[in-house]
Write a structure and sequence with these properties.
The complex is a heterodimer of chains A (about 180) and B (about 375).
Chain A: E1 12-18, E2 21-27, H1 29-34, H2 46-56, H3 74-80, H4 88-91, H5 93-103, H6 125-149, H7 153-165
Helix pairs in contact in A: 2-5, 6-7
Chain B: E1 2-3, E2 36-45, H1 58-74, E3 81-85, H2 91-99, H3 105-109, E4 122-126, E5 132-136, E6 142-149, H4 153-168, E7 175-176, E8 180-181, E9 193-200, H5 202-207, H6 210-219, E10 222-225, E11 238-243, H7 251-280, H8 282-298, H9 304-320, H10 328-341, H11 344-351, H12 357-372
Parallel strand pairs in B: 1-3
Antiparallel strand pairs in B: 2-6, 2-9, 3-4, 4-5, 5-6, 7-8, 9-11, 10-11
Classes of the chains: A mainly alpha (about 180), B alpha+beta (about 375).
Chain lengths: ~180, ~375
């Protein structure tokens, strides 16, 4: 299969689902790198990740997905060993789980101090979720506003999709 | 909270009897202070709903800084708290904070993706004791650090835990029941807790047994690092021993592993090595110590590393009784003070002017001579 952007063989395949629609991208290494999808793992946890990725590439899980909140891809994490936001832990839970277990002497679940929001008799967890959601919505709206003013329509469309995915009606939306 | 810049007063032009200000980790007090300089606890925390450093825009960074700073200021964390904004802070001031172990080199530099030196960030620390320091917008939004002199990890942990509770009362942390406290790097996830002890191990280095200690530590999943933490060499025979595992173990388990199991053994090894040097290799030990004193009392040019290394042997000489000292505790404090003031930023502050490397070497030698020279 050829790369979406040139005649080279596509070696990186990305499938994302947005609003129930499947979006496929097929890229060669060069264009994948340009799109922020690194192929070579490096950095702090590089070795460990490499081993896990070798196992994972044999399954469909190897398809590149991005964190819906910060758009960090797992390839980016592989390269730098750093996550983009708290939601990356949810987005990459399947890949990160075994990785974290290995890095922490086989620990499988958090033990120790529990954040008040999640602890017994603490403030309502749902309320915390709502606050976090409100914080995220305000950021997305600000970014959308910026993208529209900078005439970055492709970016604006992505942000509108995200706002819709969060059940919000984006501003300046005709619907 | 006092708005920056706050800096401890430099010692008056080098001379004995100055009113000298030592940070907690160099005070030389507490349990096992002959081997353990200080105990440190660090907690990594992030705000829910705000992107981590790698993906944050300058306005995200500004927001996380303001949220953290405002809560730090209003939470009643210490009797006196100084706040140092680091965006646009002069490099000399930032270097001083690094040398006092109040901020990391990483925080000093700022996140290059977020504007480097202009990256919104800062540090709050308790004054004048410097037992508490909270870095804002480092790799994680919050890095809480508590330090105690000597072997006192349990106390340092209790301090950090209480500070964490007070901050959480007004901030919403990123937390998941499965992964615990969520951090930018998964090596810190879970408790977000790093406990470490700063150890002075000159005798183990002289006997060569330090390598065994390092191997044993790494077998137990502990990290052995140098004076400045991650990626640094052991200057002045100073080593930081810390836990690597932050996930799947409770704070109490990590504490007990270090304070009840590992550290007492390392302390005992160093003490045995000191006794053995005295009993079986007294002359070579005396030679090491007196040569070091000779360098410090006579050299006209000194690098930081050379000065710190020689000071390490002076400390060993005092603690083993090789060099007679009327007041050993005062002599040890002097070594600690010089360990701090041979660092470039402290040195320049003590002399009240900026100096290039060659000038600093001369000034460093002059400072040390004036304190340790017999003439």
């Amino acid at each position: 299969m050829k790369c979406d952007h040139c005649d080279n063989e596509a070696t990186v395949h990305e499938v994302t689902v947005r609003n129930g629609k499947k979006v496929e991208r097929h890229l060669c290494e060069v264009h994948a790198a340009e799109a922020g999808i690194a192929v070579q793992p490096a950095g702090q946890m590089g070795e460990l990740i490499k081993q896990h990725m070798a196992a994972l590439t044999q399954s469909a899980a190897a398809k590149v997905t991005a964190c819906p909140t910060c758009r960090t891809t797992f390839a980016e994490f592989k390269q730098h060993g750093i996550l983009g936001c708290a939601d990356c832990y949810k987005a990459f839970a399947r890949q990160l789980g075994p990785l974290i277990e290995r890095a922490h002497e086989g620990g499988v679940k958090h033990r120790g101090k529990v954040c008040k929001v999640h602890g017994e008799g603490a403030a309502d967890a749902a309320a915390a979720e709502r606050r976090a959601r409100a914080q995220r919505l305000s950021r997305l709206r600000a970014e959308l506003d910026h993208a529209v003013r900078a005439e970055q329509y492709e970016q604006a469309a992505k942000l509108r999709d995200e706002l819709r995915a969060m059940g919000e009606r984006p501003p300046q939306d005709p619907a | 909270m006092t708005g920056g810049p706050y800096y401890p007063a430099p010692p008056p032009p080098p001379g004995p009897g100055a009113n000298e200000h030592l940070p907690e980790w160099l005070r030389g007090e507490g349990e096992a202070a002959d081997v353990v300089l200080s105990s440190r606890v660090r907690l990594a925390r992030n705000l829910a709903g705000v992107l981590f450093a790698s993906k944050a825009t300058p306005s995200d960074r500004q927001r996380s800084m303001e949220l953290c700073r405002d809560q730090i200021a209003s939470a009643g964390l210490a009797e006196r708290l100084a706040w140092e904004p680091l965006a646009k802070a002069p490099p000399q001031n930032r270097a001083l904070l690094v040398e006092r172990h109040l901020i990391s080199k990483q925080l000093s530099r700022g996140k290059s993706a977020a504007g480097g030196a202009d990256d919104p960030r800062g540090v709050a620390f308790s004054i004048p004791d410097e037992r508490l320091a909270i870095m804002v917008n480092e790799e994680d939004h919050l890095r809480i650090q508590t330090i105690r002199s000597g072997l006192a990890l349990a106390t340092a942990w209790a301090d950090a835990d209480a500070i964490d509770d007070k901050l959480e009362a007004g901030l919403e942390y990123a937390f998941s029941p499965r992964f615990g406290y969520l951090t930018a790097c998964p090596t810190n996830v879970g408790t977000g807790l790093r406990m470490s002890a700063m150890l002075h191990l000159p005798a183990l280095r002289l006997t060569g047994d330090i390598e065994k200690v390092k191997r044993a530590a790494s077998d137990m999943n502990l990290a052995v690092r140098g004076f400045y933490g991650e990626g640094s060499e052991a200057v002045g025979d100073l080593y930081q021993l810390s836990n690597q595992t932050t996930f799947g173990k409770s704070e109490a388990e990590i504490l007990s592993l270090l304070e009840a199991e590992i550290l007492p053994r390392v302390i005992e090894y160093e003490r045995i090595a000191r006794r053995e040097l005295l009993a079986k290799r007294r002359i070579p030990l005396e030679d090491h110590v007196w040569r070091a004193r000779g360098i410090l009392s006579n050299a006209r040019l000194l690098t930081t590393e050379e000065a710190m290394q020689a000071l390490s042997l002076v400390r060993l000489g005092v603690l083993t009784g090789v060099t007679p000292a009327p007041d050993p505790a005062a002599e040890v404090r002097l070594v600690h003070l010089l360990w701090l003031y041979v660092q470039p930023a402290h040195l320049q502050r003590a002399f009240g002017r900026e100096m290039d490397q060659e000038q600093r070497r001369a000034a460093r030698a002059a400072l040390v001579r004036s304190r340790l020279g017999r003439a």
